[in-house]
Amino acid sequence: MPDETKDKASSVPAVWKVVVVAAIGSLLAQLDSTIINVSLSSLAQDLGTTLSTIQWVTSGYLLALALMLPLNAWLVHRMGVRRLYLVCFACFTAASALCGFAWSPESLIGFRVLQSMGGGLMAPLAQMMVARVAGRNMARVMGYAAAPVLLGPILGPVIAGLILQHATWRWLFYVNVPVGALGIALAVLFLPKDEADLRRTSFDLPGFLFLSPGLVLFLYGADHMRENAGWVALAGGLALLSVFVRFALRKGDAAILDLKLFRGDVFRVATAAQFLSNGVSYSAQMLIPFFLIRVCGRSPAATGLMMMPLGLGMFCSYPMMGAVTRRFGIRRVAVAGSLLSLGATLPFVYLSLHGLMTVLLAGMLFVRGVGMGAIGIPSVSSAYAAVPREQLPMATTTLNIVQRLGGPTLTTLVATFLAWRLSMASATAFPAAFALLCVFHMLQVVAARRLPVELPTRGVNG
């Protein structure tokens, strides 16, 4: 298809209808996670259990997601994107209602696992749907589709506070039901049928048995580094993932995850950029609040408000990505974003040595959010544009797995390094940790410099 045809195709109303459906699903899943994360103490109190038990409402969701994510590509080939998205949306909505009916901590955790089995695949499916229809305007369409998701961390605490003040905790879940019903109805009306893309592929059971438990153990271990069991789980996860890589390389495109995608220079570099982008984002979301609470003496509530400029910066930058990348190119925008986020992180080394300046903090967080937005959309767009349309399900699964590994990997490194420095009673523990975070940002700059100047003209668009 000629480029001009694609540019026209990416502006027709049907494309934006897909974007709306994708954004609703992604926003609902993100909003649900944020609301639950800030409500754990209230859930523990109302259900008469401990915080260590109720935190499995979150941990169980994430681990079940890690178990399901490798199935994404195989399920898409067997069911189609439209049908699978509808099933996942319906499962998420029904499980939300069941969570509201939960009668004990154990039942709530079980229903959250069920909720994850549907909601966890909604985000990668939404990315795939947008990538299929975006054409040459990949960065522009991706930017608008991703922007509403950033409302989750901003609106989540507000919605949770209002619900817990005026209703019971059960409405934390019931609120998903009418929005989910609306999303399902719009998906039925707007999503194009894709039965022609179905493929009868065999299921790689050995690969699944290596990859999914490996991801679960790795993520569990990274989240429990302070315990011996966490280190054992981390080692076990790394061992299973290593075995999977060797197995998948021998099996080729018949594996549950086709590692041949990494032979493509653009996809490999874009995926590395996403790994680092997710890693520095999650590392900072751990390190900065910890610094504000422990060193600066701020309350958790105040810390949450002080972190808001970060999300606002990303929210402002995402819709601009289409116009900016068209004018300056993918590589220049990504490099500029990486340098911007690095420049906004360096002053934390100074603040951790000389004390907090609130105005400077707000400005740095906003600029950092703008920079992170300017690396995220170009790298994701490059990854999807670099593969043929028929490989989009596998590319989506691969990209999402790598993204989710980036966060806990770099966060674990930063947290372990900080704990080591604190155990030495070092006065420079936090400056050193922020310096390590800056090193990861520098690696992000290196990855951004290797992205293509423009979106690839082959793959999805060629």
Write a structural description.
By secondary structure, the protein is mostly helical. α2 runs antiparallel to α8, α13 runs antiparallel to α14 and α17 crosses α21. It is globular.
The percent range for strand residues is under 5%
Strand-pairing-aware structural class: mainly alpha
DSSP helix fraction: over 70%
State the total count of DSSP E strands: 0
Please trace the helix and strand order, writing H or E for each element. Answer: HHHHHHHHHHHHHHHHHHHHHHH
Overall radius of gyration = 21 Å
Distance between the termini: 7 Å
The low-confidence parts are 1-11
Global mean pLDDT:
82
Shape: globular
The biggest beta sheet reads: none
Question: Any chance you could write out the topology, listing elements then pairs?
Answer:
Blueprint: H1 3-9, H2 13-37, H3 40-46, H4 51-54, H5 56-68, H6 72-79, H7 81-100, H8 105-134, H9 138-146, H10 151-166, H11 171-174, H12 176-190, H13 205-223, H14 228-251, H15 265-294, H16 300-306, H17 308-317, H18 321-328, H19 330-345, H20 347-354, H21 358-385, H22 392-423, H23 429-448
Helix pairs in contact: 2-8, 2-9, 2-10, 2-12, 5-8, 5-13, 6-7, 6-22, 7-8, 7-12, 8-9, 8-22, 9-18, 9-21, 13-14, 13-22, 15-21, 15-22, 15-23, 17-21, 18-19, 19-21, 19-23, 20-23, 22-23
